Automatic annotation (TrEMBL):
Keyword field contains Hydrolase: yes
Source organism superkingdom: Bacteria
Protein name (database record): 3-methyl-adenine DNA glycosylase I
Matching SUPFAM superfamilies: DNA-glycosylase
Species per Swiss-Prot/TrEMBL record: Vibrio orientalis CIP 102891 = ATCC 33934
Amino acid sequence: MKRCQWVEGAKPDYLEYHDKEWGVPVYDDKVFFEFLILESAQAGLSWYTILKRREGYRNAFAEFDPIKVSQFDEGKVEELMQDVGIIRNRAKILAAINNAQRFQEIQQEFDSFSNYVWGFVGGKPLINNYSEGEMPPATTKESDALAKDLKKRGFKFLGTTTIYAFMQACGLVDDHSEGCFKR
């Protein structure tokens, strides 16, 4: 079975992520929030580093419930700083709490985060055409626009490169290569 070149030879859990999740369109706000936390945590690290800790993040961040995360206090931050199941970076933890609060504001304004985010790609996945071995860009005009708007709304740790990875993960963009069975 042919896959995107970047995942060839990867560990089984990474292959499973590619095969079952990466690039599949998301419409569930809870899943969007999960990927905002995970992609933000990834900043400066490999995706596999975060993928291995996904369950740790799920446990630490209240099953990715933005309402509960938005209410985390300093005591919870200190608890998370001791949690070996996540990346113990205070700025990233504080960003997750802040982003949960901003996330809810968007839900109120647009009726869902899904409505908001899909608006940046015209309501349907952008399908890019990359030949085998060609890598997608790190950013696009759409990720630039979404990152800029999120920043304006007060989100943290979500620059355009991180947002493009989020868009790929959540299927707002389909960057599977032409030879990949997921194309």
